[in-house]
Q: What sequence folds into this?
């Protein structure tokens, strides 16, 4: 039996390349 | 004469490759090429740590290497200035438009990800940390 290769799952926020400076609410 | 360097996909984030599976904040799975502006907005709305912001492209300059660019963004209502140096093929998500990069042909070549040309004035999705209480 061949184990199915697991497909990597990436979190949505990894697609955004930077965190902007935190702004006060 | 122009010297073309070979593509080096191993140095690039794998999640921009067409077909990559992305998990939204509510657990839904989508392919990277199918993401919409609403997916980012809704994911940020239910995130306890991140909130979405808009970053307007103000300048695009050459970077330190031939394949790099320095992009200056104006972020949020306070117009905080942020510069990032990325490879020309690095895609950003533009509100209402989708994936865009400084060299869409190269992005398509490397990632098979359809892209528009990133231009000054484009408004990109960005994230900020929610204030810690």
A:
């Amino acid at each position: 039996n061949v184990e199915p290769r697991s497909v990597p799952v990436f979190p949505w926020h990894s697609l955004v390349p930077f965190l902007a400076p935190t702004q006060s609410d | 004469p122009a010297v073309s360097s070979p593509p080096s996909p191993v140095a690039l984030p794998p999640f921009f490759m067409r077909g990559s599976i992305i998990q939204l904040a509510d657990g839904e799975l989508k392919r990277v090429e199918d993401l919409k502006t609403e997916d980012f907005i809704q994911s940020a709305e239910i995130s306890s740590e991140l909130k979405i912001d808009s970053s307007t492209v103000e300048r695009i300059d050459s970077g330190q290497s031939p394949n790099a660019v320095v992009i200056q963004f104006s972020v949020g209502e306070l117009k905080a200035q942020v510069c990032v140096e990325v490879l020309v093929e690095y895609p950003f998500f533009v509100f209402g438009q989708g994936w865009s990069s400084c060299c869409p042909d190269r992005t398509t070549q490397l990632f098979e990800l359809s892209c528009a040309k990133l231009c000054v004035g484009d408004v990109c999705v960005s994230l900020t940390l929610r204030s810690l209480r």
Observations:
- The mean pLDDT of chain A is 75.
- Chain A has no helices and two strands.
